Amino acid sequence: MITNQKTKHKYARYSTSDFDKFDCLKVSKIIYLVLIFVLRGYLVWLMSVSNLKDKVGVIQWVYPEPSLFYLSIVSGSIGLYVLLILSLRRPDAKTWVKTSWRNIRTILLCSLIFDLLINIAGYFYWQLQ
Question: Is the torsion defined by CA of 49, 125, 116, 81 positive or negative?
Answer without folding.
Answer: positive
